[in-house]
Recover the amino acids of this structure.
């Protein structure tokens, strides 16, 4: 299975976990065995709720139904020469981090 493909993501579970976490509830995230391409049965990682959740990866902004849960977004692009540029959806955070606001893009 290609874990970089959108259909490989259990979007319902991810959405429920993000919503629960955002409302200060701990989650029990599944553990994956990438060699076997399966979830490990009856094993989870308990993740206590904190004030910040970072969702990262090439599909972090792909699913439109997750975007309402995202209060701030930071994106990074690296060109073929390895030069990184960054953008941020939140103008206040952009200013603090020295990034371009996506509103100005």
């Amino acid at each position: 299975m290609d874990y970089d493909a959108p259909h490989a993501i259990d979007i319902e579970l991810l959405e429920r976990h993000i919503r629960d976490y955002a409302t200060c509830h701990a989650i029990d995230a599944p553990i994956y065995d990438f060699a076997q391409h399966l979830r490990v049965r009856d094993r989870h990682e308990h993740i206590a709720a904190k004030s910040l959740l970072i969702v990262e990866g090439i599909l972090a902004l792909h699913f439109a139904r997750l975007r309402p849960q995202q209060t701030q977004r930071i994106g990074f692009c690296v060109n073929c020469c390895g030069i990184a540029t960054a953008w941020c959806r939140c103008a206040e955070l952009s200013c603090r981090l020295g990034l371009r606001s996506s509103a100005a893009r």
Observations:
- Confidence is low (pLDDT under 50) at residues 91-96.
- The two ends are 35 Å apart (CA to CA).
- Strands lie at 27-33, 38-47, 74-78, 84-88, 100-101.
- Residues 11-22 form the longest helix (12 residues).
